[in-house]
Write a structure and sequence with these properties.
Layout (H helix, E strand, L loop, with lengths): L4 H20 L1 H15 L5 E2 L1 H6 L5 E4 L3 H6 L6 E2 L8 H4 L7 E4 L3 H12 L5 E4 L2 H7 L4 E3 L2 E3 L1 E3 L15 E3 L1
Parallel strand pairs: 1-5, 2-3, 2-4, 4-5, 8-9
Antiparallel strand pairs: 6-7
Amino acid sequence: TPDGRPRRRLLLGLAGALVLFTLGGRHVCLALITGLIRLEHPEVGWISGEELARSPMAPVLVDVRTWEELEISHIVGARRLDSGLPMPPDLLLLPPDADRRLLRGWRRSAVLVAALQAAGFTRVRNLDGSLFRWANAGRTMVNQDGPTSVVHRYNRAWGLLPDRSAVSLAV
């Protein structure tokens, strides 16, 4: 909104999440961040990593992270989409009820999910906990060289969220 309240609430929540991280660990922090983004975008549908991994049909996976982040690691089959650009024509040609899953899971993809849902796409979901929760669960990620356990940390604060016993961080 023009008055900036949702953004301020998100920033305060993120600061609180970092405090909670020190007290309760990354699981509490991941849950809090996701909860805050769900408050900011209540219209957005979500999918858990477990549900995505069990999906019998291969959904269209779209990753809205930067090229730098995507080159470090991504979920097999994910296509990069700049969240500031229009949807590529080949994705728009799919029927509105085609199964699309947007990755990165938090604010950047939540904004795009909301826009697609407003445009009539009915099966668009945001990945709960983003690639961090996916990686922490030991699920498959790849880069140009094949399988990897490295995840892009985004920044110093977000770098606290990956479980270092499960993944390595790219700096």
